[in-house]
Write a structure and sequence with these properties.
Layout lengths: L1 H28 L6 H20 L3 E2 L3 H8 L7 H25 L8 H4 L18 E2 L6 H5 L4 H13 L22 H8 L16 H6 L24 H18 L3 H6 L10 H6 L20 H23 L6 H22 L5 H19 L12 H22 L10
Parallel strand pairs: 1-2
Helix pairs in contact: 2-13, 2-14, 4-7, 13-14, 14-15, 15-16
């Protein structure tokens, strides 16, 4: 975990810099690729995924290290070959895990957050799940274990492979010539994120596009079919926690409501979106059929309110980055408490962005948890040694956040025009 946290301390500033560059280029070109609330929601989602990792909530059924130690048939001496094979192996496994997430009903809940944005930009690349607690795709790594690729090699290549999927989440880069035949490009991935009938459930590859061409899931971007982004059942919220669990909650309801015992079981493992006939008739769901006339989700937001949301995000980035830098200095339970505080904060301000009443109890809980941590740690996790009075600043932030949430939700008289960014 410390190695992963260290990798993130380098990756996060790079991601933010590229997002800013993308936005500046879009302004120069006169093309809108970002909306404020959408970007804040995307970055908040990325933080929840990182915090889940710090909390150690993911359970691996069978670890890769155990598999390679017990099942390896070969021993490869060349470091270069090891790293190349690890990269290719992870990409092959990534294609199939990605495809399973799209095509099996219950597994879509692991991935819906990534597709929930109605924009396609670098920020949406950071929309990552917080709902998958069990590593179910260990069997996809068995071929790598059999040929003897060491666990430490996979540990190094894994983050590189994951971070390398960031750059192609943009609508500003067109087709890329001969690279279109080799790697996943922005054009390929625009197709993947689109809900147009021509594009749905295509281009699952993560780095090498060859997997889609081998397994029949490739679709090129068509000039006459502009991609429309999001999911067919629009999420209509900025709160990443609600998005993470809305699909599985629908499956739970469908399984409970259907009278057919077999349907109660198979609804979980049927193709994504399948519903029992009796439930589908009695409890219809509105799906997008005309993708070109679907109105994007917006919430009422004055300029001050948008500025407040950016401030909340900025505070979360600073506080999360601090724990990443100093993760080796704290006990696991202390890190867990820190992550819980940040999770509650993200739930609170993204609920406020939806103008939902849940923001207020979340803010109140944040104050209680924050004060408990200050008391337990005798300050805010040693931050005072770097910034004098830092604990008082954090405590003041907690109370100001609660008061400002109450103000924007219930007392702000003038509500500005709908946010278009």
């Amino acid at each position: 975990m410390e190695a992963y946290a260290q990798a993130l301390t380098y990756a996060i500033p790079g991601f933010i810099l590229l997002i800013i560059i993308e936005h500046l280029i879009s302004l120069r070109l006169g093309v809108q690729v970002n909306r404020a609330m959408d970007v804040i929601s995307s970055l908040s989602s990325g933080m929840t995924n990182t915090l889940k990792s710090l909390m150690g909530l993911t359970v691996i059924i069978l670890s890769y290290e155990w598999m390679v130690n017990h099942w390896a048939i070969f021993e490869i001496k060349s470091n270069l070959i090891l790293y190349v094979l690890a990269f290719i192996g992870l990409d092959f496994a990534g294609y199939w895990s990605h495809r399973f997430n799209h095509e099996i009903n219950v597994f879509w809940n692991r991935h819906i957050i990534h597709h929930s944005s109605e924009e396609f930009n670098l920020a949406c690349a950071l929309r990552q799940e917080v709902s998958a607690f069990i590593g179910i795709y260990f069997f996809l790594l068995i071929p790598m274990a059999l040929i003897g690729i060491p666990a430490h090699v996979v540990a190094v290549v894994g983050p590189v492979h994951f971070f390398a999927q960031f750059w192609y989440h943009t609508s500003l880069i067109g087709r890329m010539g001969f690279l279109e035949y080799i790697i996943v490009t922005p054009s390929h991935h625009r197709v993947h994120h689109a809900i147009n009938p021509e594009y749905i459930d295509k281009n699952y590859s993560e780095i090498f596009i060859i997997w889609d061409k081998l397994f029949g899931t490739f679709q090129e971007e068509l000039p006459e079919v502009p991609p429309v982004y999001g999911v067919k059942k629009a999420v209509r919220t900025w709160n990443p926690f609600l998005i993470n669990y809305m699909h599985i909650w629908q499956i739970v309801k469908d399984s409970w409501r259907t009278h057919n015992l077999w349907d109660k079981v198979r609804v979980w493992f049927m193709p994504t979106g399948w519903r029992p006939e009796d439930v589908k008739t009695k409890y219809p769901i509105e799906y997008t059929t005309d993708v070109y006339h679907r109105e994007k989700y917006r919430t009422e937001a004055s300029l001050a309110f948008v500025g407040w949301a950016w401030t909340q995000l900025f505070m979360m980035l600073i506080l999360m980055y601090y724990i990443l830098v100093r993760i080796a200095d704290f006990a696991p339970m202390d890190i867990f408490g820190y992550a819980v505080f940040l999770m509650i904060t993200i739930f609170g301000f993204t609920s406020a962005m939806d103008r939902h009443w849940l923001a207020v109890p979340a803010e109140g809980l944040k104050v209680l948890v924050g004060l408990f941590l200050v008391f337990k740690m005798d300050g805010w996790y040693g931050l005072d040694q770097y910034i004098p009075g830092a604990t008082l600043i954090v405590v003041a932030y907690m109370f100001l956040s609660l008061l400002s949430t109450l103000y924007f939700l219930y007392m702000e008289k003038q509500v500005g025009k709908l946010s278009a960014v």
